[in-house]
Amino acid sequence: MFAAVLAVLLAAMMIISLAVVMVQADELQAVPVSSSEEAVTSSSGLEAVSGTSLVKGQSGQAGTDAGTVDSSRKVYIENIDVTDMTEDEADAAVKKKMEELSADTIVFHGGCHTYETTAGELGLAYANTNIVKEALSIGTKGSALKRFLANRSMAENGPITLCLDLTVDAGKVKETVKNSESVLNCEPKKAGLKKNSDNTFSITEKEDGCKINEDAAAATVVSYMDNEWHGGEGGVVL
What is the C-alpha separation between 72 and 84, in angstroms, rounded? Predict the structure, then answer.
């Protein structure tokens, strides 16, 4: 009798335990998956398939830092790499470049004589004063098409170089030409013999003489500096 009662109790306990397990399973299936969990699951799945790690905030750009600049993108002003410069830094670099150019020697040739001056004394400047803003905007500002074309050009053809549009001051050029006249202007001389102190003779070369026309000479210098000269020692025949 006791054995029969014990068997009934054990059977009842097993039935109750099975019912509890089934209820817990139903509750787990009913719990919704949160959006963040879905995102993690989706991301993990992509990583498992592609073998790459997706950086947060860079959808579709695996392993790319939003702040990283493409090392192939280079923009120069003359020989100055301004790619990673601020506007103030680029302005200072261009100013230094102009100081170097201003110190370059320019030689006036007139007849048999020469006169030396500098590009700075001729009022050297650059006309494209917005060159820094233009350089720093390449590939980063403007319409989508403009940015695309600039970046594609750099990718295919290498760095972009902008040149200073060098020019001089016509008034300062004319003043310098006038100052040069005392050296360049000379009377013509015939070839001849010159007796030296030791009673020997030397031949004196013929000189055609020179008379500078200020207006024409100034125009020649301006044209040369604006259209031909671009740094280094220069020379122009007046």
Answer: 12
What does the block give as tokens for 107? 């030689």
Tokens representing residue 106 in the block: 């320019």
Amino acid symbol at 95: K
For residue 195, the Cα-to-chain-centroid distance in whole angstroms is 64
Mean pLDDT for each 10-residue chunk of the chain (238 residues)?
55 57 47 37 32 29 41 84 94 98 97 93 97 90 82 87 97 97 84 80 76 95 97 96
Separation between Cα atoms, residue 211 and residue 217, nearest integer Å: 10
Q: Is the model's pTM score more than 0.85?
A: no
Query: In terms of C-beta distances under 8 Å and separation of at least 24 residues, what long-range contacts does 205-211 make, across chains too?
Result: 205/112, 207/111, 207/112, 208/111, 208/112, 209/111, 210/110, 210/111, 210/112, 210/113, 210/184, 210/185, 210/186, 211/185
Q: How far apart are CA 194 and CA 206, in angstroms?
A: 12
- For residue 82, the tally of other CB atoms under 10 A from its CB is 23
Domain residue ranges of the chain, discontinuous segments joined by +: 68-102+129-163, 105-127+165-196+206-238
**Alpha helices by DSSP H, the chain:** 2-30, 35-50, 87-102, 131-137, 144-157, 170-184, 214-227
Provide the token pair at 71.
Answer: 């090392």
How many residues are there in the chain? Answer: 238
What span, in angstroms and rounded, lies between the C-alpha atoms of 187 and 177? 18
> In the numeric block, which tokens belong to residue 91?
């302005």
DSSP annotation string for 162-206:
E---EE--HHHHHHHHHHHHHHH-B--B--EEEE-TTS-EEEEPP
